[in-house]
Amino acid sequence: MRKLQYQISTGMWVDCDEKTTEQYLTLCERATGKSRQEILTALEAGKRVRYDPEDWYSYCRYKPLRKPVEVEMVKCDYCGRLVPRISAINASLGTSCPDCYVD
User: Could you tell me if 42 and 61 are in contact, meaning their C-beta atoms sit under 8 angstroms apart?
Assistant: First the structure.
């Protein structure tokens, strides 16, 4: 199950543990008048759900999933290996991997 988060007055998001997850879901039910299932469905859809109608910062959400970072690869002009662009060394004779680069 994805981790629930709640927003604090500074605007930051805080992860819930088992006890606080139940507490904040109950607060969401009271604040919105919706059932637990409707709240969970809204959270699964990526929506924020208010847990206190009086404050601007009082929302719950599921913690966003981290997107994998794609690493751009380039070909070494000497050995032909693919190396991450950050590791490649650009020289006057072309692109070199760290193993092939000679001072």
Answer: no
